[in-house]
Request: fold
Amino acid sequence: MPMKNSLIFCIFIVLLNGGCESGPSPKGSPLDNPKIERSIVNAEILLQKGQLEEAEGLINQVQTKTWKTQAIRGDIAAHRKQWQIAAQFFKQSLELTKKAHLTTPKVEEIEDIYESLQDVQLLAGEMTGPLMPPPKDSAKSIWFKPMPIPVQFKFGGYKINDITEKGKKSVRFIADYINMQNAEHVILYGHTDERGDAIQNQRISEQRAKSVRTYLQNDGGVRAKIDVIGKGEDEPLPLPRWKINLTQEEIYQRNRRVELKILD
Reply:
């Protein structure tokens, strides 16, 4: 049985602060314009119907970039399976939720955008930039959810030298984030997809997680204590919220991962 050829990282950030309250749009908000608001609503309806070009045409008529327009653009790119482009739009959307002059999104909307960013990064197979933490004023629950990060291994490999160049880039982003958090203790949980023998999958998940631990410590300058636990194939991720058909290989790729929990 060939071993799995990629690995995904998920970060659980355990923080006690946060919180978000939705409220009315401030006067002068771009979304106060009825024409803009109507275009956004109609674009969402077209997107739900799968009419991507029509939805894109409507949203492109909106001259002002808002968290909502960028989230819709991210959804359109995700439906087209343009994962890296979608990631950039979702990042822009999250950044715009911080702007005081924009309509405040609901907690559920922030969670959807944040989880969409996580999903497209998994499916892209590589990071497009540094790890993005949950929005400062978002719901507390977001801080406890996984932050998936793709880390690829050479086909059949599980040793540190089998981590691909794209995978090493992702691990360096993880190291930077851990160090920025001044973490003292973290846990790596390894996961595989469902193919192959369950016992072998458990072993692979643990071995790859150990290799990433070594890379974090030796090349990433991480001084935190790192424990490793192999989970094998037992905890597949739920499918993303988009109503699109992922291939079986794309589903497998999402499930090959490691979850990193930062402990207080």
Remarks:
- Residues 198-218 form the longest helix (21 residues).
- Strands lie at 6-13, 147-152, 185-191, 225-230, 257-263.
